[in-house]
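In response to the reviewer comment on reproducibility (Comment 2.3), we provide here a single inverse folding case reported in full, input and output, so that an independent group could reproduce the run without further information from us. The structure tokens appear first.
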């Protein structure tokens, strides 16, 4: 059995924000966090701009595909983190012992303009998610240190 904290990142389409969160959690905290992601209304494909901006930060999510939230996923995690109000509203009741957190994050896919103009909001969202993942990592690391003392 894994000692890792199992986290489900949940967004509306699972094409951008939750994929970014899963990617950063794997890349930066994979030794302590076992991440997965899903969408309440999954998109047809991964957001190409999300993959591009993540590759700029040495995190490859290009092979990921959006997937639907399956209620059985909730039985297999310690924590659910919703990344938009739609996901928070649509999230089923969580099993006892599963913690819920809400990180409301702007949807960069709503950005207008060409690639050069739209990448700014993608980078802003990426930075916000990365900061949240680093805070989560420090919290999980602190909880493990408490148990090891």
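Designed residues, in position order:
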């Amino acid at each position: 059995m894994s000692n890792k904290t199992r986290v489900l990142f949940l967004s509306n389409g699972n094409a951008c924000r939750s994929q970014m969160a899963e990617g950063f959690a794997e890349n930066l905290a994979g030794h302590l966090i076992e991440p997965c992601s899903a969408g309440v209304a999954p998109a047809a494909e991964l957001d190409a701009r999300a993959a591009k901006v993540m590759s700029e930060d040495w995190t490859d999510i290009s092979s990921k595909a959006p997937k639907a939230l399956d209620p059985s996923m909730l039985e297999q995690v310690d924590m659910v983190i919703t990344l938009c109000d739609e996901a928070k509203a649509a999230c089923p009741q969580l099993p006892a012992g599963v913690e819920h957190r809400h990180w409301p994050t702007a949807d960069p896919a709503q950005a207008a303009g060409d690639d050069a103009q739209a990448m700014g909001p993608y980078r802003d969202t990426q930075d916000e998610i990365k900061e949240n993942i680093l805070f989560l990592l420090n919290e999980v690391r602190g909880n493990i240190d408490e148990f090891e003392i």
